[in-house]
């Protein structure tokens, strides 16, 4: 693969992150960020064995120093490459409890993981994405955020989770308005349903109907579509949900 | 082309309708509906000369009888084919005036063209789209609506236009919730900007910046993406706008 | 009552319209519009017996001629008075059916009653409301619309109803943006729940809990609050629902 | 004043907080929380000189210990009183900069002040508000949040501010859904414009038009209306803006 561009995906594991990595690896070398190497080593192998190029870097996106270190390593390992796409797919800080049982630490964990993590990731990637605008990229440089139902709707028992997700959406919307006119496509995706991954195999959702859980590969297809949109026709936000989901 | 499916596009002319027709014609025979044959004859020729299959039918979507007649003709001309995709791209009834200068006829024209037209089109196509669900379609049968900024935002001087567009969005959202679980993908697209077509060549928008008008081919790409989404991951609504558009 | 202003309420009956009429009649003479005199005669009596002033006029708001005639009669009966508040509380055209069982007439009934009715009412009242801006009104002249859940959300089986309600909201939002800067307060209220009126006595909603249906007097209190808002602090939209309602 | 209830307002100063305090002090003893006593001493005096009852407590709502200490002091000073209304009007953490000039500390300041502050305040007040439900309160116990345009809209240069405001709205919406059915009214107010306070005297907004800035007394009137809404008819969210504001 001779692309002079690369993509970086923060928050890879067995679901959306893996599918997005595989999808973008069809065109670009990809860098996979996750706190735990066990989350990316198999995906790196899988991409390499298909003839792609992939690097995994242990990174805590909620820690600015860890993010800075990751991007220094990227610069060393992919010295001549420009950034084509950055995907933020981190989603920790998930406490589901009645509000009066939540601790201040539940809120700060959600905010640090979601808003803080995205802030650090966006600050690290936007200068590179801006630089790519003038480097004849095949598609407009793109920053994509994985959101959730809780990004647009607060619910009983989901207060702190929604706070983190709403905050990320606020950042994403602000960045779309600031960096869109500079040629960087910032998009936010509301994933409204349960994703079909090993961890959710046992869940019965939507009455157990076939395709009642979201295929992570299907999510990746929409991310790729967002990335390839012409700059005269950017989508800022779209929703994704199983055909059987009530919404 | 041996597809046993076809697509129908209502509201073709020099812009989005033409691009969508060309895009879907790469895979399906396409039927083009417009009141005035001059709006589709060139597109039909263009598709045929590229090896595609196309039929134009003079149709007034705001008239149930005209729509019924069109679909009878389709049944005759494409007797064995199932409906894969139906696109409603009609947008007449556009009066821009201070409210107290508007006439009741401005309101009824907007409602008849937008809400009435889409109602007729949806009633004519949904039974066929439902029938296609079990006919092993390559992609989930799809009904796509072209919306506008005025679909989600009323503005001074745009009162009746917004009324028509809001009403269509209401219908689309209702149909997404009713027919999604039955396997038909209903999607609404908010086109937020000026489309780059012959009629708008003279318009200076977004300070005349390159790609400051929306490419209709780019819109068509997003419609095709919507059509090809896996049923576990349907988008109900997305926005499209030039990178320089304020929103 | 010596007010030189009056209020007009379209769509009175046993619920919101009656309560709003009684509330505004504490300050202004009120004009009650309904198609059927049986909907307003008792309310007129009730207001008069409390020392208020009220007139009922048989009016079909979906018919521009009927509306024009009503306002000519108002001019004769209240010759020196300016319009302080106009409330549109009409809600016919309510068909609840699967989409493919709906008729074109269901759509046109909803659009004519809701969008058409409000259009006619707004065209008849806005010139008077504008004239009141400079007539030292006690509160900014106000136009209030009763909306519903279906004003902001399409649902299976509610397609044509939602179309009518969305369209009214589009008109209201457009008018708020056009007439707000001219000093007329246009507000839209989303009534999200079942109203506690004689017709709904038998309905079990929200598990039959006390105050699980909306008190029409409570709605009227919020309408009065909207009317009395200072022009530096207008509300364009608010929601009203029982404390037990899921939303 | 013999009310067995009291109200608490967090974030008082020269604007909304002061007006809300004066408004609620007409009915209840009020407790004013602000970091700096200079923000409440004059208001406490003003209320007392009008025959009301007021206490000021130096409190940093972003610090759980400071909030806990404040509520212990309240319990001592108003030993027999139940909480009728709690208003969160805190709005620090306001950095307006291009995103790449923002520091991680700008984000954490906004999140700590807005989301963290509201979290602490809600955790401290909700048990008391719940307890008041059964204490025959004159109105449903109420928790009101002051929001802003940035609560529902991200903008270039306002990324971290919007993140904090979106997060508070997420918490408020979640609490409305959890505590509404328990009888506590949680409402979020979107203040969309510049408030007319000493600090903004020099600002020219809305072309300097009269009443082009929001009267804080008018805001307080709407807060009082929210507090007095019947539990069958709660508003969860409303917007407030000058009649001349574009929105």
UniProtKB/TrEMBL annotation, chains A, B, C, D:
It comes from Podospora fimiseda. This is Oxidoreductase. It comes from the Eukaryota. The lineage of its organism: Eukaryota, Fungi, Dikarya, Ascomycota, Pezizomycotina. It holds the Pfam family adh_short. Coiled coil: none annotated.
């Amino acid at each position: 693969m001779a692309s002079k561009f690369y993509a970086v995906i923060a928050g890879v594991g067995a679901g959306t992150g893996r599918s997005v990595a595989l999808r973008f690896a069809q065109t670009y070398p990809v860098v996979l960020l996750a706190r735990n190497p066990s989350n990316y080593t198999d995906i790196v192998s899988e991409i390499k064995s298909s003839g792609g190029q992939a690097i995994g870097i242990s990174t805590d996106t909620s820690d600015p120093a860890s993010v800075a270190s990751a991007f220094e390593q990227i610069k060393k390992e992919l010295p001549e490459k420009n950034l084509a796409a950055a995907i933020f797919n981190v989603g920790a800080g998930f406490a589901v409890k009645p509000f009066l049982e939540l601790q201040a630490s539940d809120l700060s964990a959600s905010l640090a993981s979601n808003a803080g993590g995205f802030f650090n990731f966006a600050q690290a990637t936007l200068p590179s994405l801006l630089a790519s605008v003038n480097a004849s990229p095949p598609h407009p440089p793109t920053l994509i955020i994985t959101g959730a139902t809780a990004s647009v709707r607060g619910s009983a028992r989901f207060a702190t989770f929604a706070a983190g997700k709403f905050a990320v959406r606020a950042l994403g919307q602000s960045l779309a308005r600031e960096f869109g006119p500079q040629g960087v496509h910032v998009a936010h995706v509301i994933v409204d349903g349960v994703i079909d991954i090993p961890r959710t195999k046992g869940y019965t959702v939507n009455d157990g109907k076939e395709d009642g859980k979201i295929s992570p590969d299907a999510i990746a297809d929409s991310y790729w579509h967002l990335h390839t949109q012409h700059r005269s026709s950017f989508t800022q936000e779209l929703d994704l949900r199983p055909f059987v989901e009530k919404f």
